């Protein structure tokens, strides 16, 4: 007989906490003045998307990353894009979690860095595709060449956000995991 697995209260609380931290990290931003193809900003939300996947695993991490980012969009009047943000930022947490938790061999900086890098690359590809198709061609009505040109303005912030996440998330993940483990609060 197959045993049903349910979510613990600890897992639900940790998922909600990471969603809240992702939302707050997304709010800590400097918006760049680009009027074509949507908005672009330097922000700290990607750090928490990667942390969610590493600390919670792929499914809960993806949920926390997507939900926190979508809530930020809703509260910041990007309501029309919140569903896309939920999917793309959820993919960030999911990818980071899959890489980190696949074949789980312990908590190591290298694995956390690889997981964060993978999540950042997956998200960057999805974000730039969304900017090209949804913001550029669909919303702004740009021809493909013009929509592609708007991506040039998004690259600096996209790369900056990815690099900051790749630097900070692994360090924070190992420190947070160590603190959780000392206090018998890890989800393993």
Could you explain how this protein is built, in words?
The protein has 188 residues and is mostly helical. Helix content is 74%, strand content 4%. It is built from six helices and two strands. It has helices at residues 9-27, 45-56, 58-75, 82-101, 109-139, 144-182; strands at residues 29-32, 40-43. A two-stranded antiparallel sheet has the order 1-2. The longest helix has 39 residues, at 144-182. The two termini are 24 Å apart.
How would you concisely characterize the structure shown here?
With 188 residues, the protein is mainly alpha-helical. The protein has helices at 9-27, 45-56, 58-75, 82-101, 109-139, 144-182, and strands spanning 29-32, 40-43.
């Amino acid at each position: 007989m197959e045993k049903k697995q349910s979510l613990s209260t600890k897992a639900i609380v940790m998922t909600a906490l990471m969603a809240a931290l992702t939302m707050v990290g997304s709010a800590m931003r400097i918006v760049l003045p680009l009027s074509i193809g949507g908005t672009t900003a330097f922000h700290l939300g990607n750090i928490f998307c990667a942390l969610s996947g590493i600390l919670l695993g792929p499914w809960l991490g993806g949920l926390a990353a997507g939900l926190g980012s979508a809530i930020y969009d809703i509260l910041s009047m990007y309501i029309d894009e919140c569903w896309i943000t939920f999917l793309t930022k959820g993919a960030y947490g999911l990818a980071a979690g899959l890489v980190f938790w696949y074949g789980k061999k312990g908590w190591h900086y290298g694995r956390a860095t690889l997981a964060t890098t993978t999540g950042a690359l997956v998200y960057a590809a999805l974000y730039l595709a969304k900017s090209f198709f949804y913001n550029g061609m669909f919303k702004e009505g740009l021809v493909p060449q013009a929509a592609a040109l708007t991506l040039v303005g998004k690259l600096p912030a996209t790369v900056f956000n990815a690099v900051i996440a790749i630097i900070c998330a692994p360090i924070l993940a190992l420190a947070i995991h160590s603190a959780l483990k000392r206090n018998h609060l890890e989800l393993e």
